[in-house]
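Support request, please re-run this one:
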Amino acid sequence: MFWVLFLVLACAVAIGSCGRLCLAAVRAAESEHAEHAESAESADARILRDHELSLYETAFLSGGPVRVADVTLVSMARARRLLLAHTGWATVVDPDGTDDMERSVIGAIGPEGQRRITPLRAATAAGDAVRALAERLVAAGLAVPDAARSTLAGAVRQVRSAAIAVVGLGALATLAPGQGAEQQQTPVALWFALPLLLTLSCLAIARIEIHPYTRWASPVGQRLLAARPAGADGLFAVAVRGVRAVDDPGLRAAFGDGRARRAAMPE
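Re-run finished. Output below.
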């Protein structure tokens, strides 16, 4: 009967993680409801009618702070204000940025005028300019607050880890010695199917009900993104899809695309 201890532990892990996810989802829904309590439909309609997303706003709502940094780097490279080498280095060509995002990039590069692109992206994404953009979008109801999004994402990860833990505990219980004849009639693994089913069902429901809150854009922001006209130009394509939308293989190589890097290197 030693396997029962594994079963109890598996049930505790599954119930605890699913409970945390449900609680996080309820709090997120309550917060969303409170923010749009007064004439929510008319407020959302007004936002959809009056707000036209800028390039940086589109990038943030589509992919978060790092996407904003990527769009800024690509924009500066295309304008010849920044050189992005396929070796992974960024070099300042024009030290005068045209807006706060570009000045943030130049400041993150530093006085030497050159920096590796990977840490540059991270530094720009964590900069004051991107943080201010995020705050404006949250205040406008277009972006999910970072606390709510992080809490929900963490709860979903915990449920996934719980599902893996249930499988592992079930395997240990199945291999444990000393199982009697009654366990042979009812396989031990069948008991572990219950907590596993609970975690998988919770993840399936979360995919449908909670997924909008784990993205960068709020439900209203997602509708605003979807309302953008098709056939966006190059920079807006990068804002929506990321650096994979860059048509220059040299630029893609600069961001670490190995296949693009090999294509950009001379034979």
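Confidence is low (pLDDT under 50) at residues 37-41, 181-185, 257-267. The first strand starts at residue 82 and ends at 84.
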